[in-house]
């Protein structure tokens, strides 16, 4: 039977693309599996992982441990190295054979390359760089109450677009992060999304689920004659970037350093060094060229969850707070006692960061 992405009644289950490189699963995959588990439970369906590669079957157990009910393993020597054409072919064949209702990719370099090609091949929609996902409408309303200024209780949600068990509600930053847009794909399946790494909460690993995961090796077609490119060499870049997502402590700076940028950055870096952390920044700091883009936190930067987050001279616009508000402990320093950042801070210090930070560093050194 010919595949038709508009026959939405035929599509079931939540799928996650299990990205691996050199036989090692990427961290974003486990976040997606954890989030996919939540969505699948809301929909009352299975969570499946699609795992292409060469000699990768052993990775299936780990995917099961984080919540996958089933892992579809596609092993072939032509899948050892990532190539857009071969991976697109495998994903397309898998979708056409099993018809998932939702298909999620990490918004990694590979995910951002592969997902749109698959969406075009399957004639369905794709929402890129999502920061929140919902199926259940009541859960979506709770998200809006928590993260937006929308008058949820006086908004009409009776539209078929909000059908709790049909449409994935994909939320992502729009217009440079100045507002959040929620997008649905009501006419085609699977509903596809790439999800920003670091935004989804990692679930708990279960040995019992790892042992019970169902592993399938479906039939597929892939031949040398179908491949138009060759991978001659893989070169890993030695470019050093700030690991905001993996940091336990982040000291972030905002426009408050403007009166003396060099000194402000030096103080923030000293504080981060004392805490064994890294330096973060708002979009304004990056746009002004004071720090590079890999330091940026927020809707248009990275979403982080460190054990300790210190915000220096940051007012705390909603676009920024959404990128760091799930940190375990937040300390904010700002001259204005009305700064929105204080709404989510565990400790708020009203004062000039140029006065406060040296005292913080001094006290930390005394404790050491």
Written description of the protein model:
There is one protein chain. With 368 residues, this protein is an alpha/beta fold. The protein folds into 2 domains: 8-226, HUPs (Rossmann fold); 249-367, Rossmann fold (3-Layer(aba) Sandwich), CATH 3.40.50. It has 10 helices and 17 strands. The protein has helices at 27-43, 60-65, 84-98, 109-122, 137-147, 207-212, 261-275, 283-287, 318-321, 353-367; strands spanning 14-17, 20-21, 24-25, 47-53, 70-75, 102-106, 126-130, 132-134, 169-174, 179-183, 191-195, 214-216, 249-253, 278-281, 308-312, 329-334, 347-350. The model has no long low-confidence stretch (mean pLDDT 89).
Q: How many helices does DSSP assign?
A: 10
Order of helices and strands: EEEHEHEHEHEEHEEEHEEHEHEHEEH
Number of strands: 17
Q: From the coordinates shown, what is the CATH architecture of the largest domain?
A: 3-Layer(aba) Sandwich
- From the 3D structure, determine the CATH topology of the largest domain: Rossmann fold
As a percent range, the share of helical residues equals: 25-40%
Please tell me what the overall shape is: globular
Assign the CATH class of the largest domain.
Answer: Alpha Beta
- Could you state the CATH homologous superfamily of the largest domain? HUPs
Beta-strand residue fraction: 15-25%
Distance between the termini: 70 Å
The tally of domains stands at 2
Q: Return Rg in Å.
A: 23 Å
User: In order across it, which strands form the biggest sheet?
Assistant: 7-11-6-1-4-5-12
Going by helix content, strand content and strand pairing, the class is: alpha/beta
Q: What is the residue-averaged pLDDT?
A: 89
Largest sheet: 7 strands, parallel
Unreliable stretches, pLDDT < 50, 5 or more residues? none
């Amino acid at each position: 039977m010919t595949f038709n992405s508009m026959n939405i009644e035929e599509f079931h289950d939540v799928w996650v693309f299990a990205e691996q490189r050199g036989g090692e699963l990427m961290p974003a995959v486990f976040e997606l599996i954890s989030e996919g588990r939540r969505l699948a439970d809301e929909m009352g369906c299975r969570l499946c992982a699609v795992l292409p590669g060469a000699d990768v079957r052993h990775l299936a157990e780990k995917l099961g441990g984080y919540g996958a009910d089933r892992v579809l393993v596609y092993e072939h020597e032509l899948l050892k190295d990532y190539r857009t054409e071969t991976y697109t072919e495998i994903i397309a064949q898998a979708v056409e054979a099993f018809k998932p209702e939702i298909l999620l990719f990490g918004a990694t370099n590979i995910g951002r390359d592969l997902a749109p090609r698959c969406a075009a091949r399957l004639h369905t929609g794709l929402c890129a760089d999502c920061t929140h996902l919902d199926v259940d409408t009541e859960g979506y309303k709770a998200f809006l109450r928590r993260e937006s200024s929308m008058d949820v209780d006086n908004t009409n949600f009776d539209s078929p677009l909000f059908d709790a068990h049909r449409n994935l509600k994909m939320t992502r930053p729009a217009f440079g992060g100045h507002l959040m847009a929620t997008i649905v794909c009501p006419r085609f399946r699977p509903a596809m999304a790439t999800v920003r790494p670091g935004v989804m909460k990692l679930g708990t690993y279960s040995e019992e689920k790892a042992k019970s995961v169902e592993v399938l090796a479906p039939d597929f077609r892939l031949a040398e004659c179908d491949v138009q490119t060759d991978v001659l060499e893989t070169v890993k870049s030695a470019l050093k970037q700030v690991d905001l997502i993996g940091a336990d402590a982040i000291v972030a700076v905002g426009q408050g350093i403007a009166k003396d940028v060099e000194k402000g950055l030096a103080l923030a870096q000293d504080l981060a060094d004392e805490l064994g952390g890294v330096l973060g920044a708002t979009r304004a700091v990056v746009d002004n060229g004071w720090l590079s883009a890999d330091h940026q936190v927020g809707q248009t930067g990275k979403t982080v969850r460190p054990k300790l987050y210190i915000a220096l001279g940051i007012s705390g616009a909603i676009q920024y707070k959404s990128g760091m508000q799930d940190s375990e402990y937040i300390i904010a320093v700002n001259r204005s006692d009305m700064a929105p950042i204080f709404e989510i801070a565990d400790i708020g210090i009203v004062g000039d960061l140029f006065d406060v930070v040296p005292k913080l560093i001094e006290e930390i050194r005394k404790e050491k």
